[in-house]
Structures are given as structure tokens and as C-alpha cells.
Amino acid sequence: MCRFGGFEECRGVGSFAVVVMAEVSEVAARIATAVADVAPLLGALGDSVRVVLDERAQPVLDEMTALLGVPSVHVVPAAELGVAETVITRRLARAPLTAPLPLGAFDAVLTLLPRPITVQAVDGAPLRCYVEGPVGAPAVALVNACGMPVGLVSRWVRQLARRYRVVTWESRGMFGSGLRLDFEHDLGAQAADLVAVLDWFDLRDAHVLGLCGGAAIALAGAAASTRVGSLSLWHGDYHLGYATPRTERQRELVALLSMAGQNRERAVAVQRDFVTTVDTLRPDIAHHLYYPYATPELLHRYGRLHGAVMTTDCAPLLSSVRQPTLVVTSHDDTTAHPHASQEIATRLRRAHLHRLPHGDQLTAYDAAPPLLDLATGFIAATVAWWFRSPRSPPRTRPPTPR
Question: H or E element: which one contains 231?
Fold first, then answer.
């Protein structure tokens, strides 16, 4: 069972007792998943987080946060909450926190939650990795947007792990405790993390799926390692020289990251003056999207990491990328300018450009059926291509996904 998929219901398969147990386990799983979703924020913010919920939720939240090893929250009847507290409250409010549960209800569902495996990067930085799917199946490495929690790619993991061995990880220096204050942050270091993860799990001919800023990391990793067998790059945030057009959002984000990444004192001022409202964040994933902005320290680290991704010229990498590549953008993407994706597809040796009629970086994380079909169709075609008969004539272009 995929630990990113929650509890699988088993209604109608036996006695009333089995049905009741399934319902209890489903409730416990929904609570556990909600708390796990906000656990990165709780770990970063400490034990002063308030949430406006029914007071009966307090003992349940205390138990679940203790099991996950993160600070609990303080349930209050009313308060003027900050942005982080609001997104945490809204995520927890979608769980049945006041439903009656028997003693030990969380014991079984805890095993279903994703648990990190720590892998050492080349420079010793710890990387929190997650692996799902059948051992021995074709490998897929998911490169998340820089600085974002693993929960943001959970829909991709859950779907792909049905037929592939899927591995993903969280950005260096952004997650966990005891992190070095000074760490390598350039695009090369982040691409080396991809290679280190593939090495650690001994994954060969892996398909690397890069989302948003993760697309640039995937591209750099493919240029450096033969373990990457094929690529798909979704709404990539690439820099291809100063003539590359950017959306208004990209220009604003580069400016913010540049200031926050200069030093910690500047990050404190930027985070203090950074104005956003909960209404600007997509409600179902707001708790993931806000994570790198939650504290001045996180924002400083994010500024260095993602700032490097957005300002490093990817053009010199392109001649070294020989793997079959699917490049995905849309006609109306206002988050990452489509021109860069079109340019990437034109200049890569073995690339196919797929223009969606609609979509952007946020909708890419939905792993909607058309996107999933596009990805798995390309992966299946490239797996067959790489393992074709030696008597087959060589091909110069990858198969076109249908």
C-alpha cells in the first residue's frame, strides 16, 4: 500500500465489526494525514502555533503530534491568526478531529504515513527521501519545486507508485533539525542531490520528472549522470539568459528571493514586510505553498536555493542532455513563461514539446488524469525504446506520447 495514499477502505467485505473497524480506521487516517500535512510547518514554527477549532480537538492533536515528533498546537476559541496559523487551521479543520475514536486508533494508520529515509549528499548534507512502489519496477525520480514539502507531490507519488518505483526528496537545508547554517545552494549542488539519490537507491535508467523549479534541477542532473534515462519537464522555471521573457510573477519572485537570500538580517526584514493573504493561496495546498515563507530563516534558505535555480543560465547544459525528453507547458501559463519551455524543447537533441490548452505550475501538482496519462505514456514509450532489440535501427528522436 502506498503510504502517500491514505487508508484504503474495506467496506462490504465482511461482518459488521469489519465495517466499523474500516470506518474507524478511515477517520484515524484522515486525522493522521491532516496533521502530517502541517507537520513541516509545526516543526519550523515551534510550540506557539494557535488554531481556531473545537476545543475537543486538543487531545487528539496532542496525541498525533506527539506520535509524529512535532510540536503540538494550542486550540483557542477565537483569535486573530497569522497566515501560517490560518493555513494550518484550515487544513486541520477538514479532518474529523472530534469524532470518537478507540484507544490506539492511530497505531495502525501511522504505518501508512510516508516516513523519510535520510540519504547523505555528496557534501554531507542530509536529504530526506521517500520511496514508494514495487521493488524492481521501472524507476521514476520526482523532483519537486525547490523548498516545498513532499506533500505537494503526493498525488503524483500515489498514482505513479502503482506501477513504478518512485523516489522523491525534500530540498537540502530546508527540512529537519540540526541543519548546517552554511550549505551549498547552487544549481549544481541541487542537481548533485538528484544523482546522489539515484546512486543511494541504485536506480538506473530512471525517468526523472521535474515540476516547476524542479525541472531545471532535473535538466542539470540529466546533463551530469547516465543514471537518468529520460526526462519530463513540467512548466519549468528556467533561466536562459537575460533575453528570456518572464512572467510578472517570475520577476517579482526573483526580486524577493534575491533580497531574502543576501543575508539573514535582510531576510528578517523581507519576511516581516512580505504581505500575502490566505486568499491568494490555493486552499487545498496552501499549507505546502506557504512553508518556505513561514520564518525568516526558511525564507533566507529558500532565497539562496530557489534564487539559484531561477538565475542560473541553463543554456550551457542543453548540449549535454541526450536523454529523450518530454517538455510540457501551456498556452496560458502565467506562472512560468511558456517561451522558455519552447526554447528548451527546440534546443534539446531528443525533445518533444507538448502544449496544454490550459494549466500552470499549480495545476501541474494535481496529477489530473490527462497529465498522468501523458506522463505514463511517455515513460512507457521510452522504457520500451531504451530496451528495444539490438537489431532495431537507431533512432534520433524519442517516441511521441499519444
Answer: strand 228-234
